[in-house]
Amino acid sequence: MAQKPTLLVTRRLPDAIESRIRRDYEARFNASDRLYSREELLSLAKGADALLVTLQDQLDESLISGLPRSVQIIATLSVGFDHIDVRAAEARGIAVTNAPGVLTDATADITMLLLLGASRRATEGQALLRQGMWSDPRPTELLGWQLTGKPLGIYGMGRIGKAVAERARAFGMRIHYCSLHRLEQDAENGAVFHADARDLLAVSAFLTLHAPATSQTKHFLNAQSIALLPEGAIIVNAARGSLVDDEALIEALRKGRVAAAGLDVYEGEPHIHPAYRTLPNTFLLPHLGSATVETRTRMGMIALDNLDAHFAHRPLLTRVLA
Ligand code: GLV
């Protein structure tokens, strides 16, 4: 029997994935489940044919150029690949694959949770109960803002943006969007397209971000763009932290210019701007967008399908290109 390819797996994965890896690969697992340092990663990659990595592994140009020649392919357990210098990988002849599609529903669901959590003041409500302070319920207590009938601005109308639109429609929201490409009329399903992001911002009483992290989208939400939003807008980010200038959002949340924010992602995560934690009008989650058993398992399966295809000399399913 041909020798199994050697696969370095940087983090623990759901059981079904680890079993498949054990069966088909010479696996190097991370029993401690601690994030490897650059030095550890480079040293553990020696002699490996493939890497199965996650968002937290920063595979920048210098790391990629330090990888041993044995590495032929990197599969990331994420749809986003801003943590990998794909150009540098291509220059080394290393293929990179991601895991698109399968996390659309889970991420769209969490976007709804963020919209509801922020607009219905869930953080304050939870604090009241957890601190034993809910003693005299009042009709005016913790009044939030209803989604029904409100405009929802979607910045980035890819798979996840569309799935959010579908859910938000069921909540009675009116969909507006700005994206690189306008959708076909059928797919638009009544959503209003704005070619210019400034026009989207102007109508977005609720705004949700679904664009990838690129140099063009960095700090899309900043003091200038926040100034264009309707007074008391509610902002949600389940895409990437780098889309938001934290200082500007925090300032707007403090002043009530932005009424509330629901955030699942942060620039520099897992380190988050400390003010987010102390503001009552933030509803915060620790990057849980794809964190369901079903979704993480399917993401792992896609990663392995790609690796299997590579080692069987078949076309890759979801290769990403620079
Ligand atoms: C999640 O953020 C992903 O890119 O998979």
Fold and architecture overview:
The chain has helices at 15-24, 38-44, 61-66, 86-91, 104-119, 122-130, 159-170, 185-188, 197-203, 223-228, 246-255, 274-278, 293-311; strands at residues 6-9, 26-28, 50-53, 73-76, 95-97, 151-155, 174-178, 192-193, 206-209, 233-237, 258-263, 282-284. By secondary structure, it is an alpha/beta fold. The chain folds into two domains: 6-102 and 292-311, Rossmann fold; 104-284, 3-Layer(aba) Sandwich (Rossmann fold). The strands form two sheets. It has a seven-stranded parallel sheet with strand order 8-7-6-9-10-11-12, sandwiched between helices. The protein has a five-stranded parallel sheet with strand order 2-1-3-4-5. Helix 1 (15-24) packs parallel to helix 13 (293-311) and helix 5 crosses helix 7. The chain is globular. The mean pLDDT is 97. The chain binds glyoxylic acid. Glyoxylic acid binds at residues 55, 78-80, 103, 289-290. Glyoxylic acid is lined by residues 55, 78-80, 103, 289-290.
